[in-house]
Amino acid sequence: MTLTPRYPVFLHGGDYNPDQWLDRPDILEKDIELMHEAHVNCVSVGIFSWARLEPEEGVYDFAWLDEVIDRLWKGGIHVCLATPSGARPAWMAQKYPEVLRVDENLHRPRFGERHNHCLTSPVYREKVRQMNTRLAQHYHDHPAVILWHLSNEYSGDCRCPLCQDAWRAWLKEKYGDLESLNSRWWTSFWSQRYTDWSQVEAPGPMGEKSNTSMWVDWRRFCTHQCRTFIRNEKEAVQAVDPTLKTTANLMYRFWDYDYFSLAEEIDVVSWDAYPGWHSGDDTHTGADFAMQHDLMRSLKKQPFLLMESTPSKVNWKPVNKLKRPGMHLLSSLQAVAHGSQSVMYFQWRKGRGAAEMFHGAVVDHDGRSDVRVFQDVRQVGLALEKLAPVYDSPREDAQVCIIFDWNNWWAIDYAQTGHNKKMKYNETVLMHYRQMWERGIAVDFQDMRGVTDLSGYKLVICPMLFMFREGFEQKLRTFVEQGGTLVMTYDSGVVDGDDLAFLGGRPGGLMDVLGMRGAELDALFPDDRQAMVMNNGRRFPVTELCEIPEHLGAEVLATYGHDFYAGMPCLTRNRFGKGTAYYLAAKVNADGLDAMYQEVLNHLSLDRALDAALPRGVTASRRGDTVFLQNYNPQPVRMRLTKDYTDLLTGSVQPRKLILPGFGVMVLTEMTKDQEE
Ligand code: GLA
Ligand code: ZN
Question: What is the pLDDT of residues 452-470, one digit of tens each?
């Protein structure tokens, strides 16, 4: 399947901001030449161009953009055309202050910066609609234009009076009457009962800070506002031409909005990936970004686009380190390995001034192409051309599904419990994901929406699934009953979708499935000692969180090693219906997880991307018949292949005793009989 039917090839390019160079036609001309040299075939244009596109209210100037796009097209370069709503022009902020966002301290900052408008403001929505309509009328059938890039990195919340009204309206719609809101928000505590809708305000440091049911609703409301904002943008452009698809560029570990929900509003998921390579353990970073790529692929269960990445370094981390040789290709092809149909950058050419003048770019201030970064980019462009045969191959079907849910994430982060504000939901999910990544086993992510279907999976993993919403426990029960294998951890099934505790034991509704009840949650200090002791005597350190369980008949695979709960179950297995449910009661280290998953996987025959032992720091993932073999170690590693393969990147046949270079990547296709002869 292609995300860009008007140009169905791997896209290579990035954010192109020619508005900075309109007085330098020589540079704009040179850009096209350099794009050819870098094997760039597509750029994103107009992302922050509002001030140039509508210099005065109602006065539109598209002439400069016509020239830019025509020049690109003459050079054979395609365009993702942006709507400019990521930053509004000064005149608009001056004339209509309501377009500016009010912060959590109920203070409205003045004009400046970007990504700081109110998503509710009818004026802003109307201005966006007018702008998008004009852009669509003008460019929808330009042969260069292949995709709408809606706004930029939607984020944040606003607490202006308009948003407060919208919040109350959303709550009325959800709860119908105040009594129902009072009961679901448990307002009988601390005398919080509301007696009139007008008393309800947005939570925040200036008002109610602690009611978690209210907070979770606030995040749902903010997601909803962003969704309707996106809908307004999308409807404007697609009213003119419904065939031109839309994307929004999403972000790493982004907390503000529920991305599963947001993704329902757009046609194509794209995202901006900025791994901090060489800042510690690159294998950890590799697994972390593999997980994010898989999450992005899972949002719509379709390929995605890597919309931004840096050709060299960023300028906003505390330390902005360059990618070491090899890493640019590896990092770029990692996205492709997980289902991306592009490798795009921020940005094409470094500006001379302002905030991002020192952010890595394909073309540096010296404008040269005979330099390392430019040549690294060119190498990726060439690689993507060689990978053309893989374009239509989807990422392999996963047999493993990890449940990752934004509502759960918010509920955990808001909860005042074990390790306040440090429950590390993402890190915990990553620890489980990494067990599969290291084995070359494909993973899907799903959340707890009604549409979620677990039936195709062999293994479902629920790390810290604190909240069960939409009756998800019933889906898990059916999954196990019908023969599936479930892994569930401590701190699961504690609250329902309203963030109200389950009465009668946890995990709510699944205690018989697990043969366990999570009775008490203990939190450890760094110096506290605890261990998981397997039946064969192997011991693994446990830190941070331990649940003391009540044993309801599950088979005990490991027990606690210390303290007053020494000898009590720490890891159990229960047969239920035709399936099996594992319960891990404590945060065990990676080796302990490895031992657990060895046990789990012994009973399941799961497909692996490559039939070979993978050294530490090496992983494999598959698209169709092609295997992306990646080494996140700086050193070369030795491996043994069990079949004959050709590397699509070099065209050369690989010896079965393989040496994979440090930060090396190979794209292996099995050799056909003819090739072998
Ligand atoms: C984000 C933004 C870009 C740019 C880059 C810098 O992803 O979308 O406009 O600021 O960060 O890394
Ligand atoms: Zn607002």
Answer: 999 999 999 999 999 999 9
| CA 108 / ligand 2 centre spacing (Å) | 10
Element housing 42 (H / E): strand 42-45
Which ligand is nearest the CA of 357, by number?
Answer: 1
- pLDDT (tens digit per residue) in 636-655: 999 999 999 999 999 999 99
Looking at every residue in the chain, the average pLDDT score rounds to: 97
Q: What is the DSSP letter of 406?
A: H
Distance separating alpha carbons of residues 287 and 28, to the nearest angstrom:
39
Closest ligand 1 atom, CA of 153? 8
CA of 92 to the centre of ligand 2 (A): 15
Ligand 1 atom having least distance to the Cα of 274: 12
Q: HSE, CB side, 13 Å, CA atoms: give it for residue 189.
A: 10
| Helices within 465-619 (DSSP H only) | 472-481, 511-514, 590-602
381's torsion region: left (phi>0), alpha (psi -120 to 50) or beta?
alpha
Chain centroid to CA 138: how far? Answer: 33
**Residues within 5 Å of ion ligand 2, judged at the Cβ atom:** 118, 120, 158, 160, 162-163
Question: Which two structure tokens, joined as six digits, stand for 469?
Answer: 């919403």
N-to-C CA span, the chain: 34
pLDDT digits (tens, 9 = 90+) for 15-27: 999 999 999 999 9
- The pick from 312, 315, 356 for probing ligand 1's pocket by mutation, whose C-beta has the most ligand atoms within 8 angstroms, reads 356
